[in-house]
Amino acid sequence: MQQLSNKRVGRFTASRISELIIGVRGGTATRDKYIAQKAVEKHTGIVNRGVKTYAIEHGQFNEYEAIEAFKTVTGLNVVPSMQVFYEYDADSGATPDATIQNFDDVNVATVDAKCPQPDSFFEQKMMLINEGKPEYQNVPKSYYYQAQMQMMSVGVAEHYLVRYLAEYFEDEMGELIKCELPLEQRIYIAVIKRDEAVCKELDSLIKSAANERDMLIEIYKKSILNKIS
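-> structure tokens emitted (229 positions)
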């Protein structure tokens, strides 16, 4: 367990771990791009920064509120992870938003808590209803594999998928608008159990991807110097 830092750079993490899985049609473009990105990270020590939008800032700002709401609804001993990176191996790991601890302060579950915008909140709720399949414990595939990777990294057997609609939002003028929906309509929770067969599959996929990443790095190291005639 290490504080989120350069230890995360170049490693395959839970939020995108499903990208290592080749699709049913055999396409590898998404997988190859993810591995190449991790090769660049590991080679340079630099992570590309995406555009920071209002939706992202809103989600980050309200994450603690989401965790507290989850704690209120369930009565569980929910502990914010404070951006702690849990190392699975030298090539991968996860940063859960929170963990659930027992009375001995030992982690027993991971928590992924997100605070999407209203349209995304209900869109993701419909994904759970319409895209959940028994083989993925009735949640979308990407959520399922993310949960398995978090459980592998923390060493627990249960995961809570939490989506929370914040109580307040800013309008275009920066004024706060209160969402009048009751809490039970502003939060939904899915519980995912650890599947050892899937964990074994992910372990194999990570090892294979890490080998490919490192081979790319060796190529990146080579100079291309064209002689001037």
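The chain has one domain: 2-221.
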